[in-house]
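yo

u said u wanted the structure for the complex thing, so here. seqs first:
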Amino acid sequence: MEPVDRRDFIKTVAGTAAVASLEGRGAVAAEAGPVFLSTWIWGKAANERAAEVLKGGGSLLDAIEKGINIPENDPNVMTVGYGGLPNAEGVVELDAAIMDGTRHRAGSVCNLHMIKNPISVARLVMEKTRHTTLAGEGAFRFALKMGFEPQTLLTPQSLQKWQEWKADPHHKTFWLSPDNHDTIGMVGTDGKGHFVAGCSTSGSAYKIPGRVGDSPLIGCGVYADDNVGAASATGDGDLMTNYCTSVSIVHLMARGASPQDACMELLRHMVKTDPQNKDGGVAVIAMNTRGEIGAASMNEAFHLKYALWRDGQSQLLDSVKLI
Ligand code: SD4
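structre next:
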């Protein structure tokens, strides 16, 4: 796909809903079989779990949720769930979202504390309420109502890291510049025309309390539409939120771009609108109804390794870099 200029891009995004709605629902994904695509190295175990859940008779939503629960529960993944690095005040605040491309419905939670599986809470927001997003104390109280057990999410490791950060008189804060990212973003198809996208993160380490990144914002951290495919993003949410990353990629695919071209086009658009974005921490993944995938990173400094599960094979791969 040729690069599009800014006006074309805007027209693209505005016009593609119509294109997508003209296409047959879940056109040809059935031929592709189940495919799971996730960000970072912990995506591999997440994909394998998702494939197992689907094979065992679970739904695609079950698969994505249970897959994402793996890094959420792992104290060694210090950017997601239990053991995720806390905010500047030492409180772990988690964000997550899940979107069902069949119903075009999503659920998300922001700034959730003391609950280690925000993706599961996000799914219940979607399934048990008419809301899409719950934040902070309300999200926490909702989780308790749904039977989740509160627990401290700080581990000895994450507490120590926060104490070191706090004790460093020159520590970086988000009043100055962002620094620390990683999350799990996951997109999957059951091979029967259905798509789900999910993501879960503790956000930027030592963020200003109350900060909400792109991950729990529908269209930013995740987007799924059975007519087209799905996308997710990882990196500097304070930057990516301004580009509605995931929905923009899905809309580029609806207009005919392959997942890889759509990912690259979005990154190019970010640089075109602000050249400084070439140094940003930005990486994206996408999948279309043919089961084709895309994965791209803005630069070498934030180079995404992603995980792909297809036909029983589970791999870790390097994304293409724009710069
Ligand atoms: C955020 N996008 O909160 C998330 C963090 C992330 O790789 O994905 N880091 O900004």
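Confidence is low (pLDDT under 50) at residues 1-7, 9-30. The longest helix spans residues 6-22.
cya
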